[in-house]
Specification:
Length: 278
């Protein structure tokens, strides 16, 4: 399928989704909010890859929400319909939130390769990814505060689980730019690379290492980490015990040992497509 906001290439178990509107700094148009979850859910549901990598063409990863989204009339309401419009507005926001939740809910790990700015909704997006990597010129900015609104598409529930709360508060309250070096220091990104080229090369190498492992084991890791973030230690220990009672695959364990003894790459079964309708 062809998308207007990004290109997708799947090779060696890695789905590379590259934002392709560099002249507009890869801002998120109305089409983007529909296309991204469609693409990610298709890869996830149909087990088309073992890892998803997000990157971008041009100087910046993304400038965030495109102004066309704000100018579409969603913010306007006649004074006598204020309450009616207020009731409808959360449904609009939840639809936007679902776009980035698709990244978090994907069965595969999602890695973000960030160069230049990740601004506004760009922070919402990368905070929904499993791992973040940056080039030395990258920066992160909760821009919503600077334009008179409170970020509402995912930054706050996720960012505060990734970095110290004090830094999340400072980023939100000041709308300041957090440079790549500081982002690495506080744990927002895993690694900083010298250039855009080194960034993409490094992230693809990590993706390939992930793709070489058992997809069932990797998706189990993602499920457990997400579950542990939102539940108590006791509940998570129960969940992992039940998961492995059902999902522990002896064939994958045997294959890993046999492949090592034979000095070859292991051959693991891919996940099965998910049937969401009869």
């Amino acid at each position: 399928m062809t998308y207007s906001c990004f290109n997708i290439e799947i090779t060696g178990g890695v789905a590379h989704l590259r934002f392709s509107r560099p002249d507009q700094f890869n801002s998120f148009t109305p089409e983007f909010w529909r296309e991204l979850p469609d693409a990610v859910n298709d890869i996830s549901d149909n087990a088309k890859a073992r890892v998803i990598v997000l990157s971008a063409e041009g100087k910046h990863f993304t400038a965030g929400m495109d102004i066309s989204v704000f100018m579409s009339g969603a913010l306007d309401a006649p004074p006598d319909n204020r309450e009616i419009a207020a009731e409808a507005f959360p449904h609009h926001v939840k639809a936007l939130q679902a776009t980035f939740s698709a990244l978090e809910n994907a069965r595969q790990p999602v890695l973000a390769a960030i160069q230049g700015g990740a601004v506004g909704a760009g922070v919402d997006l990368v905070s929904a990814c499993d791992c973040r990597y940056a080039s030395a010129d990258a920066f992160f900015c909760v821009q919503e505060t600077a334009i008179g609104m409170t970020a509402d598409v995912g930054t706050f529930p996720r960012l505060t689980k990734i970095i110290p709360e004090g830094w999340a508060r400072q980023m939100a309250y000041t709308a300041e730019r957090l440079p790549a070096a500081k982002a690495k220091e506080i744990g927002l990104v895993n690694e900083v690379f010298d250039s855009h080229e080194a960034l993409l090369s490094g992230v693809m190498e990590i993706a390939e290492r992930i793709a070489a492992h058992s997809p069932l084991a990797v998706t189990g890791c993602k499920r457990m980490i997400n579950y542990a973030r939102d539940h108590s230690t006791a509940d998570t220990l129960d969940y992992i015990a039940l998961w492995n009672a059902a999902m522990l695959r002896a064939d994958d364990i045997k294959e890993s040992y046999i492949a090592k003894s034979e000095k070859r790459a292991p051959d693991f079964a891919d996940l099965k497509p998910v049937k969401k309708s009869l």
